[in-house]
Amino acid sequence: MDKYKVRNNVRKLRFNHDEITQEQLAEKVGVTRQTIIAIEGGKYAPSLELAFKIALVFGVPLQEVFSYELEGDEK
Amino acid sequence: MDKYKVRNNVRKLRFNHDEITQEQLAEKVGVTRQTIIAIEGGKYAPSLELAFKIALVFGVPLQEVFSYELEGDEK
DNA sequence: ACATAATGTCAAGTAATTTTTACATTTTTA
DNA sequence: TAAAAATGTAAAAATTACTTGACATTATGT
């Protein structure tokens, strides 16, 4: 059950989607810029609620932003 | 952006899926029974990682277990 | 080259999630 | 109907997510 890790494409989505900035995304989902930086950098995984909010901003299903993959698997 | 709430069908899935018990689910995903109780009862939403783990146990995509809906909307 | 915007880092604090423990109630089964 | 299993409640401690603030670096534009 372990060895898995949460991955995300927030950074890619920010550029594909409106070229939105970290600060703008942070504002839209109601967190600080630090939180976005930490998530993009994989420092920690967001709460489920925040994950849903981010997906909403980009207008895509949650699993298109976040995925749960085996540790070593490079995309 | 707000007025939304995280909903889940963990309880239903436990019965549809193998009639698994709270304790067994807790064990499988590596948390305590209390955590499962709290999530089922909507006391709080799980971390993204735990949400993924639960979905994995039931063999369904995350959005089939958890959803992000407008506060009042009864399914 | 300079100014400004965007991104990154670090650290200490607050808030939310999860654990631990202990016991009470309901459901299942022998 | 009594024992055992499953579920529920509550509260304090621990861990993790998130905030705040202050400053450093990298990119963008004029």
Short description:
The first copy, chain A, is an alpha+beta fold.
Protein architecture, described:
Two copies of one chain form a homodimer. In chain A, helix 2 packs across helix 3 (33-40). Chain A is globular and about 35 Å long. Chain A is an alpha+beta fold and 75 residues long. Helices cover 51% and strands 13% of the residues of chain A. Chain A is built from five helices and two strands; from the N terminus they run E-H-H-H-H-H-E. A two-stranded antiparallel ribbon of chain A has the order 1-2. The model of chain A has no long low-confidence stretch (mean pLDDT 90). The first copy, chain A, has helices at residues 10-16, 22-29, 33-40, 48-58, 62-65, and strands spanning 4-8, 66-70. Chain A has one domain (4-70): Orthogonal Bundle (434 Repressor (Amino-terminal Domain)), CATH 1.10.260.40. The A-B interface holds A 1-2, 4, 6, 28-30, 45-49, 51-53, 56, 61-63, 66, 68 and B 1-2, 4, 6, 28-30, 45-49, 51-53, 56, 61-63, 66, 68. The structure holds a DNA duplex (30 and 30 nucleotides).
Write out key terms for the chains shown.
5 helices, 434 Repressor (Amino-terminal Domain), alpha+beta, homodimer, DNA-binding, 75 residues, two-stranded antiparallel sheet, 2 strands
What secondary-structure arrangement, pairings included, does this model have?
The structure is a homodimer of 75-residue chains.
Chain A: E1 4-8, H1 10-16, H2 22-29, H3 33-40, H4 48-58, H5 62-65, E2 66-70
Antiparallel strand pairs in A: 1-2
The structure holds a DNA duplex (30 and 30 nucleotides).
